[in-house]
Design brief:
single chain, alpha/beta, 7-stranded parallel sheet, 5-stranded parallel sheet
């Protein structure tokens, strides 16, 4: 039975909802299970409680259609692989949950699957392995069992599945696959499993199924678009199925829109926040691109699922009314899953009331969706389809330019946003304390999307790399294959407890500082004993690499309960960047200087780069993103200067979000990379020749932007490699990388500790690709999530392997 054809889609829904729990209940349950402090049934019980709480909450908020199968113990992409039977044999053991955890975290004898970013967000997914011999078959009953679970509570839900095309496009070829094989070659077999699953859901009385296809908002080839047509023509032609709702988000469907519209699917989701301009909602034209949706149900994402600012109801309603002229039915929804925002702004009683009034977290966004659905139901049909954008439509995708200079001080209702013409090119540099748009330096001049290394006009104070490299070699006197870490050391329970006690007033500042000093002393002594060449202070005073800086910069606010899942049990509290950024005082100099006083070896100063600080915050939308990044760059530049004056000779300015923030469409990528590179160079431009600038990138397919990484002009770049099995070393661009490069040799997101033999093999591969003098030895990322026992064993293996390789490198390779 195709029940959806006689059961219209309800008038309001969301594409997903947070799953970690308002108090991070899932995080605590997962870590307790992994550490052996609770049983598998205890973990499953927590999952059931969180699912029930979510479904009842959404129904209680008045939502018309409640999604299910959005809960995961780790990651929805990994869950899809398991449901399809696409589990490599090396992971098949134990319970379904333990299989998932083995694929995500590895085991003592098996490395985990690769992990990378979910499109242009800070959520990480596990990359499935698909080969010609992968045997696809339904495994488990998670989507069906959650439907039954909800029904037992008296609730009807809409199961959410990752669509077959996106699943295969996000997968990688399994080891040993023949040349030319791509996972999309297995589309027919995967669709066969989806057919069986749709039949099972129809038999359960499910009326609608949501199939997420976010990969369709990026540039797609003709073959990939044909795969979309084939998959949904086949699924839509089933006689026994629910109604099919294909959801897209993070941009506009572009050339995929008419392809989808030409298939039998009944409903199509469009992102009218981040894809508004692509659909013709520019305020200057008509929505002609959406005319192909005549007769379809259109699920209109007019409430942002990624930002925390309240929705302008007038503009959203205008877009909905205009869309109704083209569609068979319009349903109000979020632009994407609410997985990317915190639960409830009502929990944030400490925020400035002026700012709090402008915020909307997950529960408030559900309320906005329900309210807009009621307004749309009462609205008359439009006289013409022309309408201002429901969301951003400037030269930067996803960015809206509004009148007020500060969201904290903006007058009027949260929806009273005045649209203005975007500013022209950024003018000359302004001091960090200056208000308003911050200027960028001159363009990076060189052929191609990003300037080649050393070709761009240098920022004041930075000589060309060969000059700096000679000065640094003379000053630092480091060996080939110098060993170091990325920055953080384990955040122990004692450290977290001390930080919480300080915040609660149970511990005074002096006592807290003594605890931090003791931890730094321990970390320095440990590194000295292990024999590392460049040391770090371990960052015991930092709760998070972005939040810590937000707490010391003007223009930011931080939350108490605004947690967002990053991956598995890892959660972050993105700061809220609401005003002009200023650095009132040095931030990191005190503890870096203390660490330096404890050793004769170089100690790195540790900073977070401007792109990453902005990317991992909820950012004001009244300025172009570029201008906000340059404000932060000026603050970082001042910190670099103060560290250098304090005698810190190596300063690491991390930019792990450089690839993440890149637009999904190629047409916008060159412009983004140009100003992002300029922002980094601006942030580091105060450093002298003898000061070695490091940067760090991880878990973001950085091999796709190696030219841009080289153009950052950092003296050394550390980069994730162990988690992806050193595949970056095979990239041709690595051989031409013009500076120091540290491919990671320790995957810190897995409890596995690599042995000396494994580390040595990776280092030998690195010195085959690069001169040994430019190869650095380091983990994939910071060590804060690991235990001291794991860290000490891994770093010992790293130092031993580096010494072995160093002793055997031919003279010509050093």
């Amino acid at each position: 039975m195709t029940t959806a054809r006689t059961s219209p889609f309800p008038d309001s829904t969301v594409l997903g909802y947070p799953r970690i729990g308002p108090r991070r209940e899932l995080k605590r349950a997962l870590e307790s299970y992994w550490e052996g402090r609770c049983t598998l049934e205890d973990l499953r019980s927590t999952g059931r409680e969180l699912r029930e709480r979510t479904w009842r909450r959404l129904e209680g908020l008045g939502l018309g259609a409640v999604p299910s199968n959005t809960f995961s113990f780790y990651d929805q992409v990994l869950d899809t692989a398991v449901s399809l039977g696409a589990v490599p044999a090396r992971y098949r053991a134990g319970s379904p949950e333990d299989t998932v955890f083995a694929m995500a975290r590895g085991t003592d004898g098996v490395a985990p699957l690769r992990m990378t970013k979910w499109f242009d967000t800070n959520y990480h997914y596990i990359v499935p392995e698909i080969g010609p011999g992968t045997e696809f078959a339904p495994a488990g009953d998670k989507p069906v069992s959650e439907v039954r679970e909800a029904r037992a509570l008296g609730l009807r839900t809409r199961p959410v599945l990752l669509g077959p095309v996106t699943f295969l496009l996000l997968s990688q070829a399994a080891p040993g696959s023949p040349a030319g094989f791509v996972p999309l070659d297995r589309l027919a077999d995967v669709v066969g499993v989806y057919e069986r699953l749709l039949g099972e859901l129809a038999a359960e009385g499910v009326e609608w199924v949501q199939l997420d296809e976010p990969a369709l908002v990026a540039d797609r080839t003709g073959a990939e678009l044909e795969a979309v047509r084939t998959a949904y023509q086949r699924l839509g032609s089933l006689t026994e199925r629910p109604g099919l709702f294909v959801a897209s988000y993070f941009g506009h469907l572009g050339e995929a829109l008419p392809v989808l519209a030409g298939t039998p699917v009944e409903a199509i989701g469009v992102d009218l926040v981040h894809g508004a301009a692509g659909y013709g909602f520019s305020g200057q034209g008509e929505t002609a691109e959406l005319e192909v949706l005549a007769g379809k149900t259109v699920v209109a994402g007019v409430v942002s699922g990624r930002e925390v600012w309240r929705t302008d109801p007038q503009r959203a309603l205008a877009a909905l009314v205009a869309l109704r002229a083209h569609a068979g039915r319009v349903v109000v929804s979020t632009s994407c899953s609410l997985l990317h925002v915190p639960y409830d702004v009502e929990l944030e009683s400490d925020l400035d009331p002026r700012l709090r009034r402008r915020l909307s977290f997950a529960d408030q966004k559900v309320g906005e969706v329900v309210e807009l659905a009621g307004l749309l139901d009462a609205a008359p049909l439009p006289a013409a389809p022309s309408v201002a954008a429901a969301g951003p439509a400037t030269e930067e995708p996803g960015r809206e330019v509004m009148g007020p200079a500060s969201l904290l001080d903006a007058a009027g209702s949260p929806g009273a946003h005045l649209r203005v013409t975007p500013p022209g090119p950024v003018a000359a540099a302004q001091p960090v304390a200056a208000a308003g748009p911050v200027a960028a330096p001159g363009p990076v001049a060189a052929p191609g999307p990003v300037a080649a290394a050393g070709a761009a006009a240098e920022e004041p104070g930075r000589s060309p790399y060969p000059v700096r490299a000679a000065a640094q070699a003379e000053h630092l006197r480091l060996p080939p294959l110098a060993t170091t870490t990325i920055g953080s050391f384990p955040q122990t329970g004692e450290l977290r407890a001390a930080r919480a006690a300080l915040a609660a007033g149970r511990l005074d500042q002096d006592a807290y500082d003594r605890r931090v000093r003791a931890e730094i002393e321990h970390v320095i002594a440990l590194q000295e004993r292990l024999g590392l060449d460049v040391l770090v202070h371990g960052e015991p005073e930092r709760n998070d690499m972005v939040q810590y800086f937000a707490e010391h910069l003007e223009g930011f606010a931080v939350t108490r309960h605004g947690w967002v899942q990053s991956y598995g049990s890892r959660c972050t509290r993105p700061p809220i960047l609401h005003g002009d950024v200023r650095r009132p005082a040095p931030i990191t100099v005190r503890w870096a200087s203390y660490a330096r006083s404890l050793t004769a070896k170089p100690v790195k100063g540790m900073l977070t780069g401007p792109v990453t600080i902005v990317a991992w915050s909820f950012v004001r939308d009244d300025l172009p993103l570029r201008d906000v990044v340059f404000q932060v760059a000026d603050a970082v530049r001042a910190e670099v200067a103060d560290l250098e004056r304090a005698g810190i000779s190596i300063i690491q300015v991390d930019e792990p979000a450089l690839r993440e923030l890149m637009p999904l469409r190629r047409a916008s990528q060159e412009s983004y990379l140009e100003w992002a590179v300029r922002a980094y160079r601006r942030a580091t431009s105060s450093a002298g020749d003898r000061t070695q600038i490091h940067t760090h990138l991880c878990y973001s397919d950085a091999e796709q932007i190696l030219a841009a990484v080289d153009a950052l002009d950092a003296d050394v770049t550390s980069i994730e490699s162990a988690r992806s099995h050193a595949r970056i070393l095979a990239e041709p661009a690595v051989a031409g990388f013009g500076r120091g490069l540290g491919p990671g040799v320790y995957d810190i997101h897995s409890p596995r500790v690599p042995g000396v033999t494994q580390v040595e093999a990776w280092l030998r591969a690195a010195v085959e690709a690069l001169p040994a003098a430019r190869v650095w030895v380091n983990p994939d990322c910071g060590l804060k999530t690991r235990t001291y026992a794991q860290v000490e064993a891994a770093l010992a293996a790293m130092v031993t392997a580096a010494r072995r390789v160093r002793e055997t490198v031919p003279a010509g390779r050093s």
